[in-house]
Amino acid sequence: MGLLSARHRMGVAALLLAASSVLSRFMGLVRDKVISWQFGVGAEADMYFAAFVVPDCLNYLLAGGVMSITIIPLLAQRFQEDEADAWRFFSCVFLWMLTSASLLALFGVFFVEPLAHLTAPGFTPDRRERLTFFIRLVLPAQVFFLSGSCFTALLYLRHQFSVPALAPLVYNGCIISAGLLLPLCAPVQGMTGYCVGVTVGAALGGFLLPWRVATQGGLHLQFVWRHKLMGRFLLTVLPLMLGQTVIMLDEQFMRVFGSLAGEGVVSLLNYARRIAQAPVGLVGQAAAAASYPFLVRLLAQGEEERFSETLRSALRTGLCLIVPCAACMAACAWPILGVIFQGGRFSAAETLAAVPLTQIMLAATPFWFVYMVLVRGYYACGDTITPAVTGTVITLLCLPVYQFWAVPAGAAGIAALSGASVSLYVLWLAVLWQRRNGAGVLAGIYSLGLRGVACSLPGVALAYSAAEYCMTKSGLSPFAAACAALAAGGTAFLFVFALLSRVFAPTILAPILRLLSSRQK
Description:
The chain is mainly alpha-helical. The protein contains 23 helices and no strands.
C-alpha cells in the first residue's frame, strides 16, 4: 500500500510537471516560430543560438542544472536531524553559488572576445563581433539561474512542484515579449530584444518566483560562509562540475562544430533539435524530476526494494510512451516542421533540409529518456562519479570524430554523431548499473524497447506514406497540407501501433493503461 501511495504521489507530480512541460515546450516552439519567421536560417539566427554556448558552459561548470540532485539528499537528511542547522547549510550553499556565478559571469564579460572565437570558430570577424554583444546580454542570466536553482531545489524537497513547473513559462514568455516589443520602443536591431528577454526571464522565472514562494513557505537565509557539510557537498558536486558529459555538451557541440560546417547549419540543427527534444521534455523531464525526491526518500528510509520498483516503474512507463511518440514524429517530421517553422523567412527548402536532421535526432530520444531517469538512480545512491567519468570519456573520444568526420559530413554528420554518442553513453551506464546492482531495475527494459520499435515500424511506414501524399498531392496550401498530413499520419500510426501492441505485445500498453486507470480512481 505504501508503494502504491508513493506511485500515486509521484504520478500526480509527474502529471503536473508534464502539463507544465507541454506548455513550456509550446511556448518554446512559439518563440522559435517567431524567430524562424523573422530570421529564418541565416547568420543572425546562428549568432543568437551560438551566444548560449558560454552561458550554458558556465551553468555546467557550477552544476546548476543538477543542483536539486546534489543538494536534496543532504538537505533532506539535515532537516530530519536539525532544522536550524539545515538552514545554515542551505544559506552557505546559496551564498557560494551566488558569489561564484557572479564572479564567473564577470570574467566572461571581460574576456568575451576570445571566448566567442572558441565557441564559434567558423564565424567571420564581423559576425563574431556581434556574437560578443549577444553573449554579454545573455551571460548575466546564469547568475539568476544558478542562484535561483537553490530555491528550486528547496521547493522540490517540499514537493512544491507548481512553481518549478511555472518558471519555464515565465522565462519563455519574457523572451517572446522582449523580442517582439523592445524593437518598437527602443533603438535595437535584429535579435537584440530576444537576448534581453533571456536575462529578464531568468531574473523573473528563474530567481524571483521561486525565491518568493520559498519565502512564503518559511525561508531562513543567513550570512554563513562555512559549514561542516560543505566538504561533503563539494565531493558530491565536484564530479559533475569537472566531468562534462556528452549529454551536457550535446547542444553546445552542435553550435560549435555547426559554425564550421557553413552558414545556417547552427540554426538548422537548433530547429531540428527543438522538435526531437520535445518527447524527451514531455516524458523524460517530468518522470525524472517527479521521481527523484521519492527515490531519495525511499533510500533514506532504507526501502531499497521499493526504490528499485519505483525506478523500474518510471523507466518502463516512460519507455512505453516515448518509443511510439518518437517513431510517429519521425514519420511526420515534414508536416511537423511545416506547421511549426515554415513561413516568413523560413522557406520550404529549409523545411526539407531540417527533416532528415530531425529524424536522425529522434532515433536517439529513447536513450535520452533512459538517461534522465537512470542517472537519477545513480545520484539518489550518492554516485555522481560514474556518470561524470563515463560521460567525460565518451566526450573526449567524440571530439576528434566531430572535427574530422562530422564537420566534413555537414549537418547530417553532426546530428548522427550526436545521437550515436548519447546512445553509447546511456548503454554504458546501463551495463555498469546492472553489474553493480543486478538486473532488477533494468529487467525486461531492452526487450520492451525492441518490442515497441517492432510494433511502431509498420505504423511508421503507413504514416509516412499518408503524410507524403498529403504534402505532395493534396493540392492544399502548404500550411493546410501540413495539418492534413499530421492528422492523417498521426491517425494511421496510432491505429496500427495500438492494434499490433494489443495483439503481439500487450505489455507495452499495460503500464499506460495502469497509469490511466489509477488516475481515474
